[in-house]
Design brief:
Layout (H helix, E strand, L loop, with lengths): L1 H20 L6 H7 L1 H6 L6 E4 L7 E6 L5 E5 L4 E6 L4 E6 L15 H6 L12 E6 L5 E5 L4 E6 L4 E6 L7 E6 L5 E5 L4 E6 L4 E6 L7 E6 L5 E5 L4 E5 L6 E5 L7 E6 L5 E5 L4 E6 L4 E6 L7 E6 L5 E5 L4 E6 L4 E6 L7 E6 L5 E5 L6 E5 L1 H4 L2 H47 L1
Antiparallel strand pairs: 1-28, 2-3, 3-4, 4-5, 6-7, 7-8, 8-9, 10-11, 11-12, 12-13, 14-15, 15-16, 16-17, 18-19, 19-20, 20-21, 22-23, 23-24, 24-25, 26-27, 27-28
Helix pairs in contact: 1-6, 2-6
Length: 424
């Protein structure tokens, strides 16, 4: 009877102990030190770079489709580039109606020209500029010198091109709203253009401030169209229902706003390449804020916002990928391995990878930062410690249970042997 009680108590202890510790963390500190995010915090960000097949192709803007395929425009090569990260294979598709470069029609302001010094040769630039991807997976792009909006079907490997009504309009950046309408900036014509794919028709809206050089464009959650006005030092908002355009003056004079994006809260973010700042406008609060990029004269250009509402941007002259976290108001900057690479376009895949182009003629690359290196430290630590803790304790649970069974069996054997001796 005494031995039976001991056995029952022992089994109960084993089961309770296993249940209690099943989800407890183990060696959490050690696991944290091994995460890629921890390396990021100490300045050891993991970069990967890939050289484009055609020399001097000058990649400009970049996007990633829902399958993780990377698409980018090649201005010097008059082509659309495709990169498969799984196979590391490039494909290039020449634009059927590509025209030669013509600097007189390029549409850059003098401030823009000064920003793009060094290996960036205006005379060698082709016609493809901004790029975006619709829900069906078709690739849309602006033809700066061709004065067209282009579409490429990956399934058919076919191009379609649509001529813009205004001649020499200089279509630059491009975005798609939730209805499937394609919006774009017309730098030379000082207009915002809209192309309805369903009706195959154009509509254009005149920007109130003359010679404003509209550049970046983005769509908010209400389908309002936001855009930067590089030479007017403003950002604008177009209401599609009424066609009304409202303009907002940026805080810093001659900031030269370039790219623009909208976060999950509806805040409007934009780069200020001459002022070396990131700007933000809150439509809800009707106020502007700015943050100075730590590297002086870095020329922030491309901009993208991740799922944590952090701002990633390219530093064209600083040769860095910058990160700004509005929650903590802290910048982090990561040096690109290739020197003087002149990064411009940047985007974020659905999985969280950061992709960007290195536009310098000799560099001629695209690069990326893996999602695990880009994830916030606290998020990476939480995910890693939970996962590693669960795996560690699953292992220990098995060991403890097996040990408990063996010991219990031994006790039962000894108890049975004891009873036999007592009967004798």
């Amino acid at each position: 009877m005494f031995m039976s009680k001991i056995i029952l108590i022992f089994i109960f202890f084993i089961l309770q102990f296993s249940f209690f510790i099943g989800d407890a963390p183990l060696f959490a500190a050690s696991d944290h030190e091994k995460t890629p995010a921890a390396k990021k915090e100490t300045g050891q960000t993991i970069f990967k770079e890939f050289i484009l097949p055609t020399p001097y192709s000058q990649p400009f803007k970049i996007a990633v489709d829902k399958n993780g395929i990377v698409w980018f425009t090649e201005q010097g090569n008059n082509a659309l580039g495709r990169f498969d990260p799984k196979t590391t294979k490039f494909s290039e598709y020449k634009l059927p109606s590509a025209k030669g470069a013509d600097t007189a029609r390029w549409g850059f302001s003098e401030t823009d020209r000064k920003a793009f010094t060094g290996g960036f040769s205006v005379s060698s630039i082709g016609s493809l500029a901004g790029i975006t991807i619709d829900p069906r997976g078709d690739i849309w792009f602006a033809e700066l010198l061709g004065n067209k909006i282009g579409r490429f079907s990956p399934a058919k490997e076919e191009f379609s091109e649509y001529s813009i009504p205004t001649t020499d309009s200089g279509p630059y950046n491009i975005a798609i709203d939730s209805k499937g309408d394609v919006w774009f900036t017309e730098r030379n014509a000082n207009k915002i253009g809209k192309f309805s794919a369903a009706a195959s028709s154009f509509k254009e809206y005149n920007v109130p401030t003359s010679n404003s050089k509209p550049a970046g464009i983005a769509i908010d959650q209400k389908n309002n169209v936001w855009f930067t006005m590089a030479d007017a030092n403003k950002i604008g908002m177009l209401e599609p229902q009424t066609g009304k355009i409202t303009e907002y003056n940026i805080l810093t004079p001659t900031a030269n706003p370039f790219d623009i994006a909208v976060d999950s809260k509806g805040n409007i973010w934009f780069t200020e390449l001459s002022a070396n700042k990131l700007g933000m406008y809150s439509p809800e609060m009707k106020r502007f804020d700015e943050a100075v990029v730590p590297t002086t004269s870095s020329v922030p250009l491309g901009l993208a916002i991740d799922k944590y509402d952090r701002i990633w941007f390219t530093e064209n002259r600083g040769n860095k990928i910058g990160l700004f976290d509005p929650a903590s108001a802290i910048f982090k900057e990561h040096d690109i391995p290739t020197t003087q690479s002149q990064p411009i376009g940047i985007t974020i895949s659905l999985s969280g990878d950061i992709w960007f182009v290195e536009a310098e003629r000799e560099t001629n690359k695209i690069g990326f930062i893996p999602e695990l290196a880009a994830i916030p430290q606290e998020k990476a630590h939480g995910a890693k410690s939970e996962d590693s803790g669960r795996k560690s304790w699953q292992k220990w649970n098995i060991i403890i249970l097996i040990g408990g069974i063996v010991i219990t069996g031994l006790i039962l054997y000894l108890a049975a042997s004891s009873r036999k001796r007592d009967k004798r």
